[in-house]
Each structure stands twice: as C-alpha cells, then as structure tokens.
Design a protein that fits this description.
InterPro entries: DUF2237. With 126 residues, the protein is of the alpha+beta class. Helix content is 19%, strand content 9%.
Amino acid sequence: MSRDAALNVLGTPLVPCSYDPLTGWYRDGCCHTDAQDHGSHVICARVTVAFLNQQFERGNDLITPRPDYRFKGLKAGDRWCVCALRWKEAYLAGCAPPVVLDSTHARATDFVPLDWLREKALDAVG
C-alpha cells in the first residue's frame, strides 16, 4: 500500500498528525510506516508530561533536542507519531497519552487493541 493510500484505525484515509513538530517515520507529518520502521511509529499521540517522563526513565529520551535527526525535542501538548510498543508500555503503566484516531495508522492494531486506542481517543470519532 502506498503512503497516499494508507488508512487509519477507523478505516478511513490517514490524516496528518503534526507538522510542528514535524513527525513521522518519514518526517512528513503523518504516521506512515514501512518495513524499515522497526519501532512502528504509527500511533499519533498528544504527549503528556507523565508519558515523556515515563519514556525518559525507560531510556527513550523524547525531550532532548537531536538536530542531527531533525528532532527538536518534545514538550507536553505536542503531537507525535509514537512507537506502538512504547505506547502500549505506557498504557500498561497507566500513563499512555491521548490518541488522535484519524491520524493513527491502521497498523497500530497489530500491537494494541483498538479498544485501548478508543479509550484514550482525543476526539469523539470512532
């Protein structure tokens, strides 16, 4: 499936997650994925302080800027395509950030039950 034809978890066309900060495996604003995306950056989340701190404590520093990776660091409220298993880990720890269903790639359900994503949905869709 081409990036243009990618679907979200609701079965409709995937919509952008964030252009500021610029997110996505391809840094195209969308949670597109491919076989090289071993982290499966497919869940569009609005990150929280609790999530950022939990990830930092687990060795996944999403706060510190890394210009060499075109990454300016995240702050609470930013939307970001997070790794599905990292989001699942946070969910199980009770600190999963809210999810934008329209912008979450359908592949997310390979890792996380759709019910969990709906439970944490930012919008009333789905």
